[in-house]
């Protein structure tokens, strides 16, 4: 059964053009599911039934896995069976009547302006690492890009004279304006820190680690967790917190949804509409501040 996983992964990557993170998540989910089947004594994927799938999902729920995680696992397993069915490796899809648990949508968590300021003040400009970290945090908040997009940026994707960056993947490309503070931080990083951190001048990555290689997702997570601790901010801060904060603060200051959708790279306006909850809060504050009988 494991041989099929490699073929399935290649199909997701090369034919469906799924992102590297999506492929890795689906591969991990399917591998864990197949391991579970093996522990049941099932060696041929053709012999699996709906009961096998349901028992695995119930096990995940019993283990306390989040509803969102369970839903993703179901999507992964369903996708895997569809691939096997199309290629004649199974005769039926045991997930066909399986429904995903309903996920209660929570409003995105955004930092306050004060918390953002405090966080961005944490990196010290006394060494190359602090200069780099300051540039990364400023750019993330200034543009609202995903962490995968941040670490995937090349130097050629940055145009400081015009004040924008280019984010692209195999499906689309978008240009995002960059504010003055982020531009200043990037200039300092490019003119001083990056040059000294490089080991190979042919390296194209915008942000590099101490070895001179492209910084990793895990590396940036450690950076942001470190500055959360030094800032004393109690709420959990993730790279996505800065993306949410970017969107929330733009909405609160009058940005329209279509412009925000374009900057964030959303394919559907419904993904952008979740930030209207911050607009509602802002309208209430304006009313209470300005209405004579509020």
Q: Can you offer a commentary on this structure?
A:
With 294 residues, the protein is mainly alpha-helical. It has 2 domains: 2-86, DNA polymerase, domain 1; 113-288, hpI Integrase, Chain A, CATH 1.10.443. Helix content is 59%, strand content 4%. The chain has 13 helices and 3 strands, in the order H-H-H-H-H-H-H-E-E-E-H-H-H-H-H-H. The protein has helices at residues 2-15, 20-39, 50-62, 67-86, 113-120, 128-143, 147-152, 180-197, 217-231, 239-252, 257-264, 269-273, 276-290; strands spanning 158-159, 164-168, 173-177. The protein has a 3-stranded antiparallel sheet with strand order 1-2-3, with no helix packed on it. Helix 6 (128-143) packs across helix 10. It is globular and about 60 Å long. The model has no long low-confidence stretch (mean pLDDT 87).
What's the SSE blueprint?
Layout: H1 2-15, H2 20-39, H3 50-62, H4 67-86, H5 113-120, H6 128-143, H7 147-152, E1 158-159, E2 164-168, E3 173-177, H8 180-197, H9 217-231, H10 239-252, H11 257-264, H12 269-273, H13 276-290
Antiparallel strand pairs: 1-2, 2-3
Helix pairs in contact: 1-2, 2-4, 3-4, 6-8, 6-10, 10-13
């Amino acid at each position: 059964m494991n041989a099929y996983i490699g073929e399935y992964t290649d199909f997701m990557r090369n034919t469906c053009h799924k992102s590297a993170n999506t492929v890795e998540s689906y591969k991990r989910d399917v591998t864990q599911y197949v391991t579970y089947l093996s522990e049941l004594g099932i060696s041929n994927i053709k012999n699996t039934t709906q009961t096998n799938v349901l028992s695995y999902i119930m096990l995940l729920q019993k283990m306390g896995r989040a509803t969102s995680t369970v839903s993703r696992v179901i999507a992964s397993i369903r996708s895997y069976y569809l691939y096997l069915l199309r290629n004649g490796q199974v005769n039926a899809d045991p997930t066909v009547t399986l429904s995903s648990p309903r996920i209660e949508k929570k409003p995105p968590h955004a930092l306050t302006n004060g918390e953002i300021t405090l966080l961005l003040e944490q990196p010290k400009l006394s060494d190359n690492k602090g200069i780099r970290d300051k540039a990364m945090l400023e750019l993330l908040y200034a543009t609202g890009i995903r962490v995968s997009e941040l670490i995937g940026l090349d130097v050629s994707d940055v145009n400081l004279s015009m004040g924008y960056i280019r984010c692209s993947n195999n499906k689309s490309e978008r240009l995002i304006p960059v504010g003055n503070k982020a531009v200043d931080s990037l200039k300092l990083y490019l003119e001083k820190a990056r040059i000294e951190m490089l080991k190979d001048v042919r390296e194209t990555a915008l942000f590099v680690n101490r070895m001179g290689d492209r910084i990793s997702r895990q590396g940036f997570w450690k950076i942001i967790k470190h500055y959360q601790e030094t800032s004393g901010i109690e709420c959990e801060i993730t790279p996505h917190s800065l993306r949410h904060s970017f969107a929330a603060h733009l909405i609160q200051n009058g940005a329209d949804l279509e412009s925000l959708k374009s900057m964030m790279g959303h394919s559907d306006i419904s993904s952008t509409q979740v930030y209207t909850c911050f607009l509602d809060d802002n309208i209430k504050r304006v009313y209470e501040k300005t209405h004579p009988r509020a």
